Amino acid sequence: MAVFQTKHGQPNDARSPFGKGQLQCEACHGPGGKHTGKIKKGDTRPPMIRFSRDSVAPVAVQNGVCLSCHEKSLSAEWHAGPHASNDVTCASCHDLHTAKDPVLSARTQDEVCFTCHVTKRAEFLRPYAHPLRQGKIACSDCHQPHGTSAASQLVKSSVNQTCYQCHAEKRGPFLWEHAPVAEDCAICHSPHGSSNPGMLKARGPLLCQSCHSQQGHPSFAYGPSNLPGGSGPAVSTLALGNCMNCHSQVHGSNHPSGSTLTR
Amino acid sequence: MTNRSLLLSIAVASWLYAAAASAEEATAPDTSQWSCSKCPFESGYKSDAELGGGYLDDSSAKFGDYTGLDDKGGYVVANAEGEYVAESGYSMSYELTDLGLDSRAASLEGGQQGSYDYSLWYDRVPHSIWDTTATPFHGAGNRDLTLPSDWVTAGTTGGMTSLDGDLHSVDVGYDRDRYGAAGRYFWGQNLVLSLDFRRDQRDGFRSQFGSFGSTSTQLLAPVNDSTDRVTAMIRYQTDKWFVEVGYNGSFYNNDAPSWRWQNPFTPMVDGADVGQMAGAPGNDYNEIALTAGMHGLPGNTTVAFTAATGKGTQDESFLPYTINPDVYTNALPMGNLNGDVAVTSLDLTLTSRPVDKLRLRGSLTYDERKNDSKQAAFDSIVYTDMIPLVGSETNPRYGFERFRALGSADWALTSQWAVGAGGEYRELKRTGTTQEVKQDELLDGWGKVSYRPSGYLGLVLRAGAQETKPDQYNTTVAQDDGQNPLMRKYNMAYRFRQYGELTANLALGSLPLTLSGTAYYADDGYTKSQIGLTSGLYQRYALDLNWAINEKFTAYVNGGLDTNDTDQWGSSTFSYRDWKGTVSDTFTTIGAGLTARLMEKLSLDLGYTYASGDSDTKISGTNAGNFPTVSSTLNGFKADLTYEVNDRLDVLFSWWYENLDSRDWALQGIGPATLPTILSLGADPYNYSVNYVTLSARYSFGKKEGEAAKEE
């Protein structure tokens, strides 16, 4: 009976299935007459519409029931979105007979999304990840599951605009820009989690050396012998923050002498 | 109830009897007098409050990161939630979470369903970074980091004789406090107005390096800033179309736009005693957006359109070239950047299902960043407050225009088999300051086969190939920047990718068992790169099993394996490639859990998590060798036991065990003075083993579920 603790169970909203003049349970599950009526011996009792990912009711029928009320608010964004195109049912994500729909809470939403996006669970278990596991961020902070025009259903028009929601300090513009930073945060970062500090795609100095090859220290081969205690000299470009031991303003600098991103 | 609504009759009949079934014409029922006397509608006030204590048996910054459980000792368990529902339908609810922890959160929501709603909320996100760190500096969190008066400078850390005595422990991290207020008003049936304000405020400090020439110091950079965001929206919506106009504003303010630190090393040039670092500059961003869409067009077609234009500005006053009084500099060419970035995005998406078996999807996207910030020649740049650079440098302005077109078609061959194909074209033009590649294109094509013999089984196989092609890699531009002409920056290089993915969903007949699995691989070849990244192979496998054993028991098991293998080349002699870096990452996860109603009044939740990662780096050729494996192994176990004393009182016990064992050559064995030219904080790799136990009682106030109905 938890449905009466949800918006669907409100008698004072005329639009609710239990609102005045509405069809109550049958508003969603369809007419019960055939389901409860007499049937011939050997015949299968016609089922009510059941809403779930593995229901025998076709996706179009399930979602059609939901959209008969939610069409306005979801509208073309839903119909044009990839979840609709891939036959995802509303009930694959929403649990309507629970007082608190898990997908609407940051603490429980991730497990709903992982039901289909199974590889993402492992990514968020990496040592450096956004705090999804701790319930301090939700998938829907960055992605709009009901459809958007942006790639990967991002809530903003691009990766960077999405990241700037929380990381506005990276937006600049800076006096000395680092070109890939302005272009796409995901050139260097794996936003779903990484084994490298800062959610970097790879560890330095190799990550930096996939773009920087200037004569001298950017192009040297840094081997394990350059670690403290190794056979070679311990170099300041390998341990700790590696290249960022000096070039610490890697997202850009607004210092007039910051052209090498050291100030 | 023999009457049927026309709409539902059509929907249900088409499902039950297919097209041949006679769609039953029925008169819409007169539901005006319908009531549900047995429905336990909610009204009145109810609330749950939980109070108790917890104990953490060890301290760990990493375990406390985002959880607030960073210090060994006792914690207060305090949670509450409540709701008031008036007879009129007005409702208000609140939720207080983890009040006894640094990760506390609170929210209040209310409104008249269908007329208006509002919310207020607060959430603290504690970001604890390290607790194994030490520094000789005072003033952490402030804009001036100073050394003790007895500090002895030296050319290398080994000569800093007062270091041991001056070191003091410091926990590195900062809190992010998030506040928000939002409201929506439904004006009639079709018009929605909404307003949302939120503030993120950060306070604390983080690690950042500051250098003087070839010496560097790991410092505690102040984090003291705020971001205000405002979103306002007007939306007109009907059953078929909508149009929405929105405004987004984001305003970043940094109370630490610069900070200074004393040089702990003997200055290599006169006057280099203190360094000054620029913080992130304050900036504003304002955007307006128009979104519209229509569906139900001929051929079951949907069109959605978005246009947004925004402007970012930044006019933080410049710092001087240097604070070294012994270095002469010319006047700055301008007092601030007059930063001006215009962002434009346009998108048109179209989906169609002209016949039942065919669905089409396509979209066109344009995205632009135009940097119109002021440019000037900076002719007195002083490298790390020490060395005046000869000549001048002009600040770059990077921008781009991105165009993306994609299309796909899916055709249902039979009720079980479907095929699909799609493609994508992307074009990226880099505008502003010239880069090595001015324009590149991406072409992607894929095919898909899906097999769904029943609602219980679904298999989808998707495979494709993708080519990223620069129009020309301009080695003149690269050489002007001092790059090896054989280098191909990995985000601009030619790349050929093959990829494939198999996903499976299985529900085992009448058994309440569901299984989801994914296998993905992508093979990247940067076949025209001599130096830089040359190949990458990415594989991901995951399995997820859920089992509703019976009404009392549910269980899950999941597992994942990710591998990344990359090769890249370099030239230590600035000529032909002579060294190769190979990185192999493996990451394995296992999870299992059980939810059980052991007795009528006793329930149990168990969850186990294992996550293990290994990263092996090998250098071949010049300076060859294998790095020690970077590894992390997480074992976590949670048990929650709830005993229902009576219908108002529950007693809860929880136990959370977590163990993390990590090794990292970048940190391992490196104390503050281990590296001769870097004075570090001496952080250790994350290692912890903690138990957190709580015992609490939860009491329900006000009405219990169903009481309203009983009263009727």
Could you walk me through the main structural features you see in this protein, from its secondary elements to its overall organization?
- The complex is a heterodimer of chains A (263) and B (712).
- By secondary structure, chain A is mainly α.
- Among the domains of chain A are: 1-36 and 45-99, no CATH class; 172-263, no CATH class.
- Chain A has helices at 25-29, 33-36, 59-80, 82-85, 90-93, 109-114, 118-124, 159-163, 179-183, 206-209.
- The longest helix of chain A is centred in the first third of the chain and has 22 residues, at 59-80.
- Chain B has helices at residues 6-17, 61-64, 163-166, 475-480, 707-711, and strands at residues 44-56, 73-85, 90-97, 105-112, 116-135, 144-145, 168-187, 191-212, 215-237, 241-254, 258-262, 274-278, 283-297, 301-314, 339-352, 358-371, 377-378, 382-383, 387-388, 393-394, 398-412, 417-432, 439-454, 457-470, 495-507, 513-525, 532-548, 553-570, 579-599, 602-621, 625-626, 630-644, 649-663, 678-679, 687-702.
- In chain B, a hairpin with a 3-residue loop joins strand 7 (168-187) and strand 8 (191-212).
- Classes of the chains: A mainly alpha (263), B mainly beta (712).
- Chains A and B meet through helix 3, helix 4, helix 7 and helix 9 of A and helix 1, strand 8, strand 9, strand 10 and strand 12 of B.
